[in-house]
Amino acid sequence: MKTKPTHAFLLAAAACFAGCTSLGDGSGGPQTTLQGAEGLNEPQELDSGFTLSKDLEIMRPISVRKNDFLVVQFELHNKRGDQMNLEWSVEWTDEQGLKIDTNENWRPLAIGGKGYETIQITAPTTSARGWKLKVQRPNPIR
Fold this sequence. Notes:
Strand order of the largest sheet: 3-2-9-6-7
Structural class: mainly beta
Oligomer: single chain
Helix content: under 10%
CATH topology: Immunoglobulin-like
Shape: globular
Distance between the termini: 44 Å
CATH architecture: Sandwich
């Protein structure tokens, strides 16, 4: 079992998640993507169409193997006084960094003002070694 609650991870995650104060027109729009992998102490930000760190913080990251499946867990903290509405999705990769074909879907997430939400993601196959967490503004179906 590997625990990865490093300060550097929290700084990288905070850099990834900065500024969701304006949710825009609800079109989904730009995404922020954070990439992590088994055995890495610090996930890295791949791209950021918008930033969330002043409003959203990732805390207590953990990476473990359960029944040979990679499981990643972290807590999201809404630092704002009002509710924050987001969507998130995960993409998994194998040891070579190739995308594992899954039915990727966006999950809505509402975190109350000053609230916390624990997210736990489990890889779809035992060959998964890495993951990409994508966060965006809500994208309602019209």
